[in-house]
Specification:
Structural class: alpha/beta
EC number: 5.3.1.6
GO molecular function, one term: ribose-5-phosphate isomerase activity
Shape: globular
InterPro entries: RpiB, RpiB_LacA_LacB, RpiB_LacA_LacB_sf, SPI_LacAB/RpiB
Strand content: 5-15%
Radius of gyration: 14 Å
Protein name: Ribose 5-phosphate isomerase B
Strand order of the largest sheet: 2-1-3-5-4
Number of helices: 6
Enzyme class: isomerase
Number of strands: 5
Distance between the termini: 34 Å
Length: about 150
């Protein structure tokens, strides 16, 4: 199950991604927002991130104007590794090397064609483990070192 959400600045791209997911047989849950309904990006990022941490969703896709705000907000939730991606290679590496559970996109900086290629690359990639798992473990250990 893929959790997908956007603020009002990412609704159009979210709808394009949902259509892609439907056409390719992916199950997803839309956490909002809908057209013309204002939504602050920290709120939607928290909702999707908590759905991933709880196991309600396996992965997440978040969209705002730039992708930066939702990425920062999602990464504040313990257990989340959210990656702001703007190209196919970064999306693939986010999963293979960093085991990112959420990718974050920006509607104002990434067109729908490229965004769909990014989503496809992310969803088709698998975490490679090995030396990369050691690094992911170190990232997650940083949460336990908070002051």
């Amino acid at each position: 199950m893929i959790g997908i959400g956007s603020d009002h600045g990412g609704v159009t791209l979210k709808e394009a991604i949902k259509e892609f997911l439907n056409q390719n047989g992916y199950e997803f849950k839309d956490y909002g927002t809908q057209k013309d309904v204002p939504m602050d990006y920290p709120d939607i990022a928290e909702t999707v991130a908590r759905a991933v941490v709880s196991g309600e969703c396996d992965k997440g896709i978040l969209i705002c104007g730039t992708g930066i705000g939702v990425s920062i907000a999602a990464n504040k939730i313990d257990g989340i590794r959210a990656a702001h991606v703007t190209d196919v290679f970064s999306a693939k590496m986010a999963k293979e090397h960093n085991d990112a559970q959420i990718i974050c996109l920006g509607e104002r900086i990434t067109g729908p064609g490229l965004a769909l290629e990014i989503v496809k690359a992310y969803l088709e990639s698998e975490h490679l483990g090995g030396r990369h798992q050691r690094r992911v473990d170190k990232i997650m250990a940083l949460e336990r070192k908070r002051d």
